[in-house]
């Protein structure tokens, strides 16, 4: 077992605390995953329907970690142990409440997107030849055949669903979310006004992101990004769409695969880097 001498090896102590910090981050990830379960399923549902072996292993791992860290805290000086335990409870409660709010907002946004997709799909139409040709070199034929466009009177444009969520998350400077020029509901693009080639391209980038990431991951990344940056233009999902849109505007005769670029960002986990 690795040990520190009585004089305290500073290098070893730094290494130990780095490893402890890594373990703490891993446990925080496990806490977040557990919060997802807590939000979506009741304890009774998990007890009744969860795979017994998986549930037992999760319980064993959690119990073992609790016993291990409790034994360490008990060996701390009494005053420091009380302070550490109190701080840990407060921080855990704060993180749990914050995480719960984010996950709850993500779920509501996801439901809203599904509802709006179903609402507009009956009145949406396939892309016509002219706009399809303008972006055909950047998107797959399958995606262009799948997407539907619904045009709505600009005066009837609703506020972004994130506007209400912003207030829930404590964000007050969200004026940019009012009356967006278009909204993408998975594969249905709702346009409030003129559909320019550039606006279409931008909307289709989001269609690709939905397709690659899936609705649940997309909405969670979007809400988390918005909570951290407080500006939609700085959310990685939106920033990437804006960058690809700029590339299209600068060189429409120089095609590239939007899907490849989106998959690259997804594989490199760049959509979660705020």
Walkthrough of the structure:
- With 274 residues, the chain is mainly alpha-helical.
- It has 2 domains: 87 residues, no CATH class; 171 residues, no CATH class.
- Helix content is 66%, strand content 6%.
- It has 11 helices and 4 strands.
- Strands 1-2-4-3 form a 4-stranded mixed sheet.
- The protein starts with 9 loop residues before the first helix and ends in a 7-residue tail after the last helix.
Element-by-element helix/strand order = HHHHEHHEHEEHHHH
> What value does the average pLDDT take?
80
Number of strands: 4
The SS-based structural class is mainly alpha
Rg, rounded, reads 24 Å
Distance between the termini: 38 Å
Largest sheet report = 4 strands, mixed
Number of domains: 2
Essential attributes:
66% helix; 11 helices; 274 residues; 6% strand; four-stranded mixed sheet; mainly alpha
SSE layout:
Blueprint: H1 10-40, H2 43-49, H3 52-74, H4 78-120, E1 125-126, H5 129-135, H6 141-146, E2 148-152, H7 162-168, E3 182-185, E4 188-192, H8 197-213, H9 215-229, H10 236-250, H11 258-267
Parallel strand pairs: 2-4
Antiparallel strand pairs: 1-2, 3-4
């Amino acid at each position: 077992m690795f040990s520190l001498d009585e004089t305290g090896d500073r290098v070893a102590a730094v290494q130990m605390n780095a490893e402890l910090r890594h373990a703490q981050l891993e446990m925080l990830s496990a806490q977040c995953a557990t919060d997802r379960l807590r939000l979506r399923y009741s304890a009774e549902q998990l007890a009744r329907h969860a795979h017994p072996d998986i549930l037992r292993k999760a319980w064993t791992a959690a119990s073992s970690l609790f016993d291990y860290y409790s034994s360490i805290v008990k060996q701390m000086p009494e005053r420091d142990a009380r302070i550490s335990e109190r701080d840990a409870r407060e921080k855990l409660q704060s993180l749990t409440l914050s995480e719960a709010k984010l996950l709850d907002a993500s779920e509501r946004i996801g439901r809203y997107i599904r509802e709006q997709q179903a609402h507009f799909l009956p009145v949406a139409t396939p892309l016509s030849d002219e706009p399809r040709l303008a972006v055909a070199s950047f998107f797959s034929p399958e995606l262009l055949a799948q997407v539907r466009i619904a045009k709505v009177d600009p005066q009837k444009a609703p506020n972004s669903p994130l506007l209400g969520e912003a207030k829930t998350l404590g964000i007050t400077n969200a004026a940019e979310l009012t009356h967006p020029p278009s909204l993408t509901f998975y594969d249905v693009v709702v346009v409030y006004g003129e559909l320019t080639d550039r606006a279409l391209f931008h909307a289709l980038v989001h269609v690709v992101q939905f397709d690659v990431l899936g609705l649940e991951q997309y909405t969670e990344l979007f809400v988390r990004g918005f909570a951290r940056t407080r500006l939609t233009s700085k959310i990685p999902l939106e920033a990437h769409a804006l960058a690809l849109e700029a590339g299209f505007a600068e060189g429409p005769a120089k095609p590239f695969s939007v899907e490849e670029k989106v998959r690259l960002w997804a594989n490199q986990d760049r959509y979660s880097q705020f």
